[in-house]
């Protein structure tokens, strides 16, 4: 769940993984109640930003599906976000969650 400070500010969501890991991801970031930015990724830290939101400071749900296949290098999966506009704020809200399933 996220908020942006102005209707002209979007949010960029992406992930980083340990060196050598394979990642495929799909991020769905709403820009209104009926439209969204869909970003498909095959590399780390390559997320596409939404360019706006219909209501400033409103709780908005973003979702993602990720598949990460680790390699020999240990490390962490990190979910990252940024404001689409440097001078405007974007916030991932407390209570947001991540559900992960380890496949052996």
Question: How would you explain this protein's 3D organization?
Answer:
The chain is mainly beta and 104 residues long. It has one domain (2-92). It is built from no helices and seven strands. The protein has strands spanning 2-4, 11-16, 22-30, 36-41, 63-69, 78-83, 90-92. The chain has a three-stranded antiparallel sheet with strand order 4-3-5, with no helix packed on it. The chain has a two-stranded antiparallel sheet with strand order 1-7. Strand 3 (22-30) and strand 4 form a beta hairpin. The protein is elongated, with a radius of gyration of 14 Å.
Present the secondary structure layout.
Layout: E1 2-4, E2 11-16, E3 22-30, E4 36-41, E5 63-69, E6 78-83, E7 90-92
Features:
104 residues, three-stranded antiparallel sheet, mainly beta, two-stranded antiparallel sheet, 0% helix, single chain, elongated
What is the compact description of this entry?
With 104 residues, the protein is an all-beta fold.
Query: Helical segment tally?
Result: 0
**Strands in their spatial order, largest beta sheet:** 4-3-5
N- and C-termini, Cα separation: 30 Å
Kindly provide the radius of gyration, computed on alpha-carbon positions and rounded to a whole number of angstroms: 14 Å
Level of helix content? under 10%
The profile of the biggest β sheet is:
3 strands, antiparallel
Query: What is the chain-wise order of helices and strands?
Result: EEEEEEE
- What's the total number of strands? 7
Q: Residue ranges: pLDDT <50 for 5 or more in a row? A: none
Beta-strand share of residues: 35-45%
């Amino acid at each position: 769940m996220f908020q942006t400070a102005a209707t002209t500010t979007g949010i960029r969501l992406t992930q980083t993984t340990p060196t050598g890991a394979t990642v495929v991801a799909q991020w769905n970031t709403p820009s209104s109640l009926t439209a969204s930015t869909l970003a498909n990724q095959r590399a780390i830290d390559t997320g596409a930003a939404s360019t706006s939101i219909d209501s400033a400071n409103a709780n908005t749900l973003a979702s993602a599906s990720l598949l990460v296949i680790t390699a020999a290098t240990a490390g962490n999966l990190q979910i990252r976000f940024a404001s689409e506009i440097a001078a405007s704020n974007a916030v991932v809200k407390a209570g947001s969650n991540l559900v992960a399933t380890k496949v052996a």
